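Re: that chain you flagged

S.,

Sorry for the slow reply, it's been a week of failed gels. I finally had a moment to sit down with the sequence you sent. For the record, here it is as I used it:
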Amino acid sequence: MSGLKFTADKAPAGVEVRERDGRNEIAVPDLRLVEELIHARAEASENIYFRAGVSSRSRVRLELGVSPGEKEARVQFILEPGACVDVFCIAEGKPGRGTVPVELCYHLKKHASLNVWTYVGSGGGPSRIGQTVIFEEEHAFASLRGLSIIDGDSEIHHKIEADHRTGNCISRQFYKSILAGQSRSGFESLVSVAKGAARSDSKQLNKNLILSAKAKASSRPELRIHTDDVSCTHGSATGELSQEELFYLRSRGLAESDARFMMIHGFADEILEDVSYAPLKKQLSEFVRGRIAGMVRA
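Prediction finished late last night. Pasting the structure tokens below so you have them in one place:
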């Protein structure tokens, strides 16, 4: 199974892996706590199916391969009742080449809990990440956070849907982009609340930091509400570094490059601060610091 990559070339203890009907399947049994990070890699045309058993706990690191074309990967997560899953989706493109476009779909049963962090750092071509959360039973929770740091002529397009088919569920979306050069970002998000899905709770927020006159960001959060007694909000903001804050930091003796680094890193750190797995948080922080340093020096 070329798309799966596990520590020491084997699955973590308690994780079942097999290939069936043209797809790679990963399963965490019921009531199982998997402390080791599960590694998987999505290549073009890949089909991955992940099942988290009843009241299980697991973490998945999903890397997107570099793609010369538009053949997307598909990844499906099934969270059984009480399952808790953290997903870390990492897309690191190369100059002139983006990462594999991917469609991720999450099916949440009763009392399931999903936390997703998506990191995109690209100096390559266009990339697309689609994510759909389907609340199939009540009292489920999903939080999706994303950070994109792109430059050159890179493009990243996030398309997200939270489908509240039943009531008493919570969804959160918080995405940030940092753009330099001639890069482009797109955030398209839809929260739909079905008729009768009362007490649904949803928040969407997208913020973009523009570092170049030629960089552009588009944002389109949307709500479709078909019932009463809900709490749903959305918002977006796009802007440049504050010249007043930059002047203040420089007046305290900081070089302009150091001041810019501090401001940009502070903008990014809000997404990373809640990453739940300490070793990966450290690695992502190093990715972010390195990419921001490269932008500041450019």
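What I noticed first: The radius of gyration is 20 Å.

Talk soon,
D.
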